[in-house]
Design brief:
The complex is a heterotrimer of chains A (288), B (276) and C (434).
Chain A lengths: L3 H33 L1 E4 L4 E5 L3 H8 L3 H31 L5 H9 L6 H12 L6 H8 L7 H4 L1 H26 L3 H9 L4 H28 L4 H6 L9 H11 L3 H30 L2
Antiparallel strand pairs in A: 1-2
Chain B lengths: L6 H28 L4 H4 L14 H9 L2 H32 L5 H10 L9 H11 L5 H25 L3 H9 L4 H30 L3 H4 L8 H6 L9 H29 L7
Chain C lengths: L9 H13 L2 E7 L2 H8 L1 H8 L2 E7 L1 H13 L7 E4 L3 H7 L20 H6 L1 E2 L2 E2 L2 E6 L1 E6 H6 L10 H11 L7 E4 L9 H11 L16 H17 L9 H9 L3 E7 L2 H5 L11 E5 L14 E6 L7 H11 L2 H11 L10 H5 L1 H4 L4 H9 L24 H16 L5 H18 L3
Parallel strand pairs in C: 1-2, 1-3, 8-9
Antiparallel strand pairs in C: 3-11, 4-5, 6-11, 7-9, 7-10
Helix pairs in contact in C: 9-10, 18-19
Classes of the chains: A mainly alpha (288), B mainly alpha (276), C alpha/beta (434).
Main location (chain C): periplasm
InterPro entries (chain C): Bact_solute-bd_prot1, SBP
Keywords (chain C): Signal
């Protein structure tokens, strides 16, 4: 159907987006690469000459590097697991007939509208504060010692906060997918006496495959770079320092732009490894 | 035909769904409630739910301290401007990817998404220096451009998936009737794509509204949006839960209301092509 | 208009007149502390006097630091006045990034600034930032609980006495913790507190050759004392408590003692915010028996002008107004003497009305007891009490204090934390070429 004419028109139409994104990628990337080979310390007067691969070596050999990679993967993995599993359950529930469906849906998706800084502040202070937080009141009511969430269960707390923000997104996409499921097929299976679990694994889950892929892909992109949630709650203490946060510490807190830039290059590499990994595993779901 | 459902089952569904919905919504509800309390009531144990002296004092303190309307207006301009600009650039690109696909279309799409993986903080200095050079610091136009670029991959991808769902035969038929490319876009494609475009706009408006790294670091006064507004209320001295709640409520209320009115659109439209 | 002394050069005078005539707008970046927010409320008075409009960028401390540092190092020129501290000022001043404040008007009376503050905000004798308020740290305690426990707080307590008093006042049944101290990660939060505690146990960050000293017994002793004290008598989750968290605990009557910034005194004695306002006593920060250094720091929030601003004259005018004696009197007239910005001017402490404020004398004594040029028992190559005035310190100390906080939370042992601190500091100092 595509003629030569429409092909060149298509290219022309694609050009602005591609050129802009190419610029947005290349300019910072080139500058990051440039700085990563520099001994660039703003507080010591800026550019102090070439550093070779020093920054790269120093960044990985720092005792903070591997724990940061691990923390990043734990947070991304944890949030994905929680949001996908709960998202499926929630989507199935919301698909059922009920009274006030519209209002319930709004309640469920509302956290998605809350800016990350606000949600981190609200969770940290009004819920997780070990003295005045609502959880502490609740724990005391049941005669238990209040938990210091952000120090004793820091990583789980952050995973929880982030999951709360992203659960609506997963639920929304999965709900749309479930709604498109052919209900006759389900009914037929029900008639045949297939148990609920079998109906779920044989019909619903395969149907959701593509939606789950999308959820994982989009969320991973956003989760790899979460920052505000950590900045506001723990400041990277108690084993919550992700790779992004480590770069922040190097660039802004330690004012070592060269070292931070080398970290940035590692983060890009990590992101691409994760991306390739994702594509390999779930990529076939994206065709169609 | 829809399945016949007993009233009993519907009641169970309703109860369960409402319980979970309220649980998920509770932090927001609690924030809104707390914003109407005094500072002492905000931390009271046992917590007070409704039976407190409702006061607007926190709101007036916050308004006195910061010019809320200016922050709000900047948020609207930045989120709105970047979304509109993004749509203008993305529609043709997504159209051509959807209807004139080539072998590299998918690669280009995935590459576009991968540009979102560059950690923002790593490029703060380069971008800041660039903005100084271009005189874009603390300008709305600068923020609009950055927000647009950040969200462009998502916009392109969403639109692409919507466009793909439009049956090609309709376009063929339009072409047979002698429609030009422009007419095809304007009169055939656009009406069919409007629901998709609408939910794309919504999602990106939300994402741009909530972005808190660039909006905070590239602005000072003239272009500072609500993310900067909230940064002056986190951890001040003394008791602050009520004031923080008021500021938080002010920061999220506009987008929450927008979401409330457009939730049908969002629920129907946010597919990313997940539905065949 | 400000009446300007005839001593002023004609240039400065004409600049000021031009500035006023054009009705300039200056942009000020500041921290969201109570005194700064109060100052914002009086901006109109300044605008009326001078015709200069003021735009405020009020940010939380961490965000502010990140924001102004990026701007000053890249010469972004976003702000005409920046609120910075005693750590940044000498470093930035040495780099030539700040406008020297050496031509302030005679009426401003720069010699009235407390010597400790003036030294801390100068580089090689040149003042680069004017203190809006200054602080040291001291013990704040509940006189009623102290009395009930049958103890009397000495003017200058030791850590041993603090421990004893904490044990006596601790009352979990009444929700009263014996003592509240900072444990929150961050160089300016728990990092500052543990550094001065270290000083009072005879520890130091570096020896004269810039070798990190965390492997020394004094550090271990200080940390062990702190952790034991807090585990026994401190509040739940103290590892995440900073200044604000402790302030609110103390105001709610949940702490027997609190050792922290002297500026907190006016908040805990303010009956509007504090439930214990009428029963707070003050004492010098403690030391280990026999160690000559006490655990009190020195800090000032100060206003500085970034070099390169087009509005230098207006900015200077604002700084002269905000840190003047007149401003202090303005606040005193409207909100009472207890609420004026403390710790910046000698004349304030000579004012009869201010001497009646319960915490005035102890604040001044604490400030005078702190000497940034001689902070530790053993000699050190650096200036600064709760910080080390080198550019690498903020990042390094934040990481070190994160390791300490993890130890407070029981996630690692004190030995592990100290070993990691030693590694971090060694790594950073090697990278910086010391």
């Amino acid at each position: 159907m595509a003629t030569q004419h429409s092909r060149s028109a298509a290219r022309l139409m694609m050009a602005p987006a591609v050129v802009l994104l190419l610029g947005w990628m290349l300019v910072p990337l080139t500058m990051t690469l440039y700085f990563s080979f520099k001994n660039y310390l703003p507080l010591r007067g800026g550019d102090l000459g070439w550093a070779g691969f020093d920054n790269y070596v120093r960044f990985v050999s720092s005792s903070a590097f591997w724990p940061a990679v691990q923390t990043t993967l734990v947070i991304v993995g944890g949030v994905l697991l929680i949001t996908v599993v709960l998202g499926i359950l929630l989507a199935m529930l919301l698909d059922q007939p009920m009274w006030g469906q519209g209002v319930v849906r709004i309640l469920v998706i509302a956290p998605f509208f809350v800016m990350p800084t606000v949600s981190a502040l609200v969770w940290k202070n009004m819920f997780m504060d070990p003295v005045n937080g609502l959880f502490a009141h609740l724990w005391r009511f049941f005669g238990a010692e209040p938990v210091s969430w952000l120090s004793d269960a820091s990583l789980s707390s952050i995973i929880m906060i982030v999951s709360w923000q992203w659960l609506p997104f997963a639920t929304l996409i999965l709900l749309t997918a479930i709604q498109s499921l052919d209900s006759e097929q389900l009914e037929a299976a029900e008639m045949d006496g297939a148990p609920a679990l079998a109906r779920f694994t044989n019909i619903i889950l395969p149907h959701l495959g593509r939606a789950i892929t999308i959820v994982i892909l989009i969320q991973t992109i956003f989760l790899l770079s979460i920052f505000a949630e950590i900045f506001v709650t723990t400041g990277g203490a108690f084993g919550t320092r992700t790779l992004t946060y480590l770069i922040f510490q190097r660039v802004l807190e330690s004012q070592n732009v060269g070292l931070g830039s080398a970290g940035g290059v590692y983060a890009i590499i990590l992101a691409n490894i994760v991306a390739i990994f994702l594509m390999r595993i779930v990529g076939k779901n994206l065709d169609a | 035909m829809a399945r016949a459902v007993t009233t009993q089952r519907k009641a169970i569904n309703t109860t369960l769904a409402w319980a979970i919905g309220l649980l998920i919504f509770f932090p927001i509800l609690w924030t809104i409630l707390t914003s109407f309390k005094t500072e002492a009531q905000a931390i009271a144990n046992p917590p007070i739910f409704i039976g407190f002296d409702w006061t607007l004092e926190n709101y007036s303190i916050v308004q006195e301290r910061s010019n809320y309307m200016r922050f709000l207006w900047n948020s609207v301009i930045i989120a709105g401007g970047s979304t509109i600009l993004g749509i203008i650039i993305a529609v043709p690109a997504a159209w051509s990817m959807a209807f004139v696909p080539s072998k590299r279309t998918k690669d280009i799409l995935l590459w576009m998404l991968s540009t979102k993986m560059l950690p923002a903080v790593g490029v703060l200095y380069p971008i800041y220096l660039l903005f100084i050079q271009l005189g874009l610091l603390d300008s709305r136009i600068g923020l609009v451009i950055v927000m647009m670029l950040i969200n462009l991959p998502i916009i392109v991808w969403m639109l692409y998936t919507y466009f793909r769902e439009i049956p090609g035969e309709i376009l063929e038929a339009a072409r047979m009737d002698g429609a030009s490319l422009r007419e095809e876009l304007l009169y055939v494609l656009t009406p069919m794509a409007i629901p998709g475009i609408a939910s794309t706009i919504l999602l990106n408006f939300i994402l741009a509204w909530n972005e808190a790294f660039w909006t905070l670091n590239l602005t000072a006064v003239d272009a500072a949006p609500l993310t900067a507004f909230i940064a002056s209320y986190s951890s001040p001295e003394g008791l602050f839960f009520a004031k923080l709640s008021a500021a938080s409520t002010m920061a999220i209320a506009p987008i929450l209301i927008l979401g409330w009115f457009s939730q049908k659109q969002l629920v129907r439209g946010l597919t990313f092509g997940a539905v065949k | 208009m400000h009446l300007r002394s005839a001593l002023l050069g004609a240039t400065a005078l004409s600049l000021a007149t031009v500035a006023a005539a054009q009705a300039e707008t200056i942009t000020i970046a500041t921290v969201n502390n109570g005194d700064m927010i109060r100052m914002q409320g009086y901006t109109d008075t300044f605008t009326e006097q001078t015709g200069i409009e003021v735009e405020w960028v009020t940010l939380e401390e961490n965000v502010l630091r990140q924001r102004v540092t990026t701007d000053i190092t890249t010469k972004g020129g976003q702000f005409d006045i920046m609120t910075i501290g005693m750590y940044e000022t000498p470093i930035w001043g040495a780099n030539g990034w700040l406008v020297p404040l050496n031509d302030l008007s005679a009426e401003y009376d720069v010699d009235d600034i407390l010597p400790a503050m003036r030294n801390g905000l100068s580089h090689e004798g040149t003042l680069y930032a004017a203190p809006f308020y200054g602080e040291s740290s001291m013990v704040m305690y509940r006189t009623d609980l102290m009395e009930a426990a049958g103890l009397e707080m000495p003017e200058a307590p030791t850590w041993e006495f603090i421990r004893e008093a904490a044990a006596a006042m601790d009352n979990p049944a009444e929700d009263i913790n014996g003592i509240c101290l900072r444990g929150k990660a961050g160089w300016g939060e728990g990092g500052a507190f543990i550094t001065v505690t270290g000083n009072s146990f005879g520890a130091r960050w570096f020896d004269e050759n810039w070798t990190p000293q965390f492997d020394q017994p004094q550090w271990k002793e200080a940390l062990e004392f702190y952790v034991n004290l807090m585990n026994d008598y401190g509040p739940e989750g103290y590892a995440t408590n900073g200044f604000n968290e402790n302030l609110s605990l103390f105001q709610q009557g949940k702490c027997g003692m609190w050792i922290d910034a002297t500026v907190a005194a006016s908040f805990v004695t303010n009956p509007n915010d504090s439930t214990v306002a009428d029963s707070v006593g003050f004492a010098l920060a403690p030391n280990k028996d026999g160690v000559e250094k006490r655990a009190n720091w020195l800090w000032a929030w100060a206003l500085a002008i970034p070099a390169g601003t087009q509005k230098e004259a207006s900015a200077k005018q604002f700084i002269e107004w905000a840190t003047s004696k007149e401003y202090i009197e303005l606040v005193a007239a409207n909100e009472g003497w207890a609420n004026v910005p403390p710790g910046a001017r000698t004349s304030l402490y000579e004012t009869a009305e201010y001497q009646e404020v319960p915490f005035a004398a102890m604040t001044l004594d604490s400030i005078n007891a702190a000497d940034p040029t001689d902070p530790t028992v053993d000699p050190v190559p650096y200036v600064g009490i709760q910080f080390v005035a080198i550019p690498e310190f903020a990042g390094m100390a934040t990481e070190v204090s994160q390791e300490f906080s993890a130890a407070y939370a029981g996630q690692q042992s004190i030995d592990e934390a100290l070993a990691k601190a030693q590694d971090i500091a060694t790594e950073v100092m090697e990278a910086a070429g010391y």
